[in-house]
Amino acid sequence: MSIFDTTGSAQEPSSRVAFAGNRLDRQSEFRDDDCLAEALASDTMRAFAISRGRAYLRANGAGFEALHHAEQLAAFDPDLDNAILLGFSETNQPRLAVPVRLDPEELPDTVKAIDPRSIYIQGLVSVSLLGELAQATSLVAWSKTHQYCGRCGHPTRPRAGGYRRECTACDQMLFPRTDPVVIMLAVDTQSDLCLLGRSPHFPPGMYSCLAGFLEPGETIEEAVRRETHEESGIRIGRVSYHASQPWPMPHTLMIGCYGEAISTKIAMDSRELEDCRWFNRAEAAALIGRQIEGGDMRSPPPGAIAHHLIHDWLTHGS
């Protein structure tokens, strides 16, 4: 059976990637402007402390804590005027994302400033918190870059607990942004091969799926075909959506697809890639195996959607 004919497993593929599984009740459509003040006044409030795209984690025995209560948060010089109410936990605890001003170099030894990618790769917080962390870092990044109105240039102010911003002069409303990226595994179904490439900024030995930003006036399928051809010279026919992944660097949604190759001769764009090649099943399986065992060539880590695209192709057929 072809990967393009499968109906999927019982487990939703997107549930297996890092930063998935955010269970907060966001209530983003039903908020009063005083909801942030109420959340900050709650004894059960817990907050992520965010600075320059990194979360402040407190050492706690052998692990780390990403959530801080009010007294702990105060030690980081929080910017409460630009705090954002993320939502409410299953026990109705208010959950906040708070930009903090204390420089990472001034943190005590018991607190570390760590970027979301490193947090998930090193397993520093529970899997259940990664989705909330993605939401927190993405919203803080968006809010910081939208302090001024793009239409008239005047300052903006937070509304609805920071979930949108409003211009103080022209009243234009600004909403959080998500940048869509297509990431695709091109598959030659006749020869049972998959196409992987190496970007110059990848860690040594890593090969991954091709990827690129979705452009205005373009469908997901068109973006898969365009990006694959631009980077590798390979033409794509059928396109099948497989899974998605929030990627908080700073506010991206990775849209994972399979693309059926209708040509096989690679014409690599050396400005984008330093290598691009076809891998058979044994070679692709070895890439994933070396990710677990270590080695010279490897796939992206298990939490990455590219890892799952390769793994699921190996599992479900050509």
Plain-language structure description:
The chain has 318 residues and is of the alpha+beta class. The protein is built from seven helices and 16 strands. The mean pLDDT is 94. It is globular and about 60 Å long.
List the helices and strands and how they pair.
Layout: H1 35-41, E1 46-51, E2 54-60, E3 63-65, E4 67-68, H2 70-74, E5 84-88, E6 94-99, E7 111-114, H3 116-122, H4 127-144, E8 156-159, E9 164-167, E10 173-174, E11 179-188, E12 193-198, E13 210-213, H5 220-232, E14 236-247, E15 252-261, E16 275-280, H6 281-293, H7 305-316
Parallel strand pairs: 1-6, 11-15
Antiparallel strand pairs: 1-2, 1-4, 2-3, 2-7, 5-6, 8-9, 9-10, 11-12, 11-13, 12-16, 14-15
Q: What's the quick description here?
A:
The protein has seven helices and 16 strands. It has 318 residues and is an alpha+beta fold. A hairpin with a 4-residue loop joins strand 14 and strand 15 (252-261).
